[in-house]
Amino acid sequence: MRTSTPAFVLRRIRWSDSSLILTLYSLDFGRISAMAKGALRPGNKFLGRLELFGQTELELSRREGRELDTATEASVISHNAFLRTDHSAFAGAGLFTDWLLAVVSHGNEPSGPVYRLTGSVFSLLETGAPPWPVICGGVVKLLQLSGLGLSADACVACGNPPGEHPRWSHSSGGILCEGCVEQGFPVKSGIVSFLARAQNSDLEPLSRVRLWQGGYIQCHSLLKEYAQVHLEHRLALKSEKVMKEILDGTR
Ligand SMILES: [Zn+2]
Question: Could you give the domains of the chain?
Answer without folding.
Answer: 2-79 (2.40.50.140), 87-246 (1.20.1440.120)
